[in-house]
Amino acid sequence: MFGGLREKLKAARQRLGGSIEAAAAKAETEEKAVPKAGSPATPSAPAKGPVTSTATPSFVEKVRVLITERELIVSEKDVDEALSELEMTLLESDVALPATDAIIASVEKNLVGRHRKIGESVDALVVNALKVALLDVLGSGFNLKEYIMTHERPVKILFTGVNGTGKTTTVAKIGSYLKKEGFTVVIGAGDTYRAGAIEQISVHAERIGIKVIQHQEGADPSAVLFDAVQYAQSHKLDVVLADTAGRFHNKANLMSQLEKIKRVMKPDLVVYVDEAVAGNDAVTRAFEFDKTVGADAVILTKADMDSRGGAAISIAHTIGKPLMFLGVGQAYDDILPFEPAKVVDELLDSGA
Amino acid sequence: MLDGLSSSLKDALKKLAGKTVVDRAAVDELVKDLQRALIVSDVNVKLVMELSKAIRTRSLEEEPPKGMNVREHVLRIVYQELVRLVWASTEVRLEPQTILMAGLQGSGKTTTTAKLARYFQKKGMKVGVICADTFRPGAFDQISTLCTKIHVPCFGNPQEKDALKITREGLEALKEQELIIVDTQGRHALEADLIQEIIDLNVLTKATHRWLVIDAALGQQASEQAKRFHEAIGIDGVIITKMDGTAKGGGAMSAVAETKSGIAFIGSGETIEDLERFDPDGFISRLLGMGDLKALLERANEAIKPEDVDVNAMMKGKFTLRDMYKQLEALNKMGPLKQIMGMLPMGNMQLPEGVYDVTSTKMVRYRIIMDSMTPGELDEPALINSSRMQRIAHGAGATPDEVRELLKYYKMMQRTMKGLRGAGSGKFNMQRLMKRFSGMQ
């Protein structure tokens, strides 16, 4: 995941670096009244501007010395085109429009008006601006293990999200993860609506060796989950994982059912599950879910389908809640804790 | 459904309509608004760029045909290009055939399979379903529960791990059925072994149709996935699911463009009946606020028996409580009021918000109240005075306030119906305008 975005960001970054370089070269040449000087581009930043140098090497040397000692103010015009390219890149990577706007604005704010020694690497400057913008959006991550250790048991975790994002599978994966970490877990089969959902979760649970509390199809999910909490309390278990039926944020009655579940089982954590391949709608529904039942952390599933992962950025930007895990496959182990700093570093890895 | 895209597209067009001169700047502005609207709806970015470029060059370069002013000309180009984007509708014949379902995990294949079975069953065909999803626990329980509800035979075996074997046995067991739908496990394009499996399934079943099920919320990834599926088995139709959320389905539209197929159906709800045929003209008309009478009629024909009420009564001048009673009954069968209203050609006309607020529970209350009215009162609601109101309320176990509310609702509906008729002859009648356009394509 994020591999594709990384490639694209690299290109956009070079573009940005390139236009600043070009601007620098242009400013220089204008001042010196020398036509088309060679740009002192770092190898990673192929200037898109005037690069055809007709001068002798010694002349280029001279210009380079002159340039490296000058300071440059980056203006809005210099980065305009490159920024709109970055915008396209983000949009193509499924970062929703509002989040894209925010990132672009942040990068622009960070770049425009900056004094810069010509000698200072353009690349570093751009990377920094992007890094600040992305980290700003992605937040600081969420350590579930630590959370459970530091809170009163049982820790009750409620999973919410729209239909088909992979809540049930995720519940099973988290159950398996926690069990491996040495916690005792019970699962509440709160999806009493979809045909086959109870069978699905109980087969999963049986495979990973976790107890499931279930009622029959059509039962009140609040009651099921209340029972699951009761069970955990009386058996002194560490964690309750509460699965729920998928629901759309624009169905008022289903959302109030979710509110009721929340009232009844009083979860410590509400985890919002969405898929990495979702587009702009990710923003709308994350916002609505956060508004109605709240969300303390986000899990992004199906991250193996897509190397872009723009939805992560969109959702994080919209509700400002940390991304906890990424689902990356069909097996129980295919779940990765998410560390934003690492991901951003990887994204902007100076492999350029 | 599609409210967001629809309203931003309408806004963009309205802006154009408000311009005194349609010049280069106006076209540029329109194109920019369209781009934003489409990108927010998850239409593939490259596709949006192509589309907007086409609209721009055509608007500026093509001479408007005689008798059409520049504004109508531009509007027509937008309409045509958008229709081109969603391609043609896939032909669905009512004859013996095999349908293979393909799609990503969690896109709604199983639910859609059941809905399709129901759709063809209602059209009078003998349908059978094979559950070839051997991976997801509970998949067979899910499809067989749904099939049992509609009395469609369903073949599967949760113990068997070989999808090909199940399908082979299933085809044998269900050979009495005219139409067989094969539900498969979710997979994505990067899982080579699963892609191979669906290629094998396609060869084995000799499927007449290979339909790709796509979640309306799927983003830019849609084109890529569709391309891979298309390369593997040759997709000849797309089904967009979860259109009842707020997602705009732009990803699915991009998938259609990628596979050069068409949108076969749209899933828009959780019950087994929530499946609509797709018609590109109607879809775009609805997007642009021009109504989709064809879909409305199809729905009406399915939901309402001729003796119930004819749809034209809605449009007729005289509108009594009795008509409203029948309407409430009929509408109940047809689906949510807002959905129905969305199909009517109302252009930019706004309905009073209150019209939609009447939920189905309220409709039931209203019918009970109307049940305790006399025939005279139903025909001539003006008769109802305060003592009659008391009596009606008493008879229905309601309060006089509720009766008053009902009468208020009735008046609102009456006004709306009048408004609808009025809209048919207005100067800015979008529907007629568009008819003209489509005739000229």
Describe the 3D structure:
- The complex is a heterodimer of chains A (352) and B (441).
- Chain A has 352 residues and is an alpha/beta fold.
- Helix content of chain A is 52%, strand content 13%.
- Chain A is built from 13 helices and ten strands.
- Chain A has helices spanning 3-32, 57-68, 76-92, 97-111, 122-138, 144-150, 167-180, 197-208, 221-234, 252-265, 281-292, 310-319, 340-347; strands at 71-73, 115-117, 155-160, 185-190, 211-213, 239-244, 269-275, 297-301, 323-327, 335-337.
- In chain A, the strands form two sheets. An eight-stranded mixed beta sheet of chain A has the order 5-4-6-3-7-8-9-10, sandwiched between helices. Chain A has a two-stranded antiparallel sheet with strand order 1-2.
- In chain A, helix 1 (3-32) crosses helix 5 (122-138).
- Chain B has 441 residues and is an alpha/beta fold.
- Chain B is built from 21 helices and eight strands.
- In chain B, helix 6 (139-149) links the parallel strand 2 (127-132) and strand 3.
- Chain B is flat.
- The model of chain B is unreliable at 306-311, 346-350 and 423-441 (pLDDT under 50).
- Classes of the chains: A alpha/beta (352), B alpha/beta (441).
- At the A-B interface, helix 3, helix 8 and helix 11 of A face helix 2, helix 6 and helix 9 of B.
Give the helices and strands, then pairings.
The complex is a heterodimer of chains A (352) and B (441).
Chain A: H1 3-32, H2 57-68, E1 71-73, H3 76-92, H4 97-111, E2 115-117, H5 122-138, H6 144-150, E3 155-160, H7 167-180, E4 185-190, H8 197-208, E5 211-213, H9 221-234, E6 239-244, H10 252-265, E7 269-275, H11 281-292, E8 297-301, H12 310-319, E9 323-327, E10 335-337, H13 340-347
Parallel strand pairs in A: 3-6, 3-7, 4-5, 4-6, 7-8, 8-9
Antiparallel strand pairs in A: 1-2, 9-10
Helix pairs in contact in A: 1-3, 1-5, 3-4, 4-5, 4-12, 5-13, 7-8, 9-10, 11-12
Chain B: H1 3-18, H2 24-40, H3 45-61, H4 70-85, E1 97-103, H5 109-122, E2 127-132, H6 139-149, E3 154-155, H7 163-173, E4 179-184, H8 192-205, E5 209-215, H9 221-233, E6 237-241, H10 250-259, E7 263-267, E8 275-277, H11 280-287, H12 293-303, H13 312-315, H14 321-334, H15 337-343, H16 354-357, H17 360-371, H18 375-379, H19 386-396, H20 400-423, H21 430-440
Parallel strand pairs in B: 1-4, 1-5, 2-3, 2-4, 5-6, 6-7
Antiparallel strand pairs in B: 7-8
Helix pairs in contact in B: 1-2, 2-3, 3-4, 4-21, 5-6, 7-8, 9-10, 14-17, 17-19, 19-20
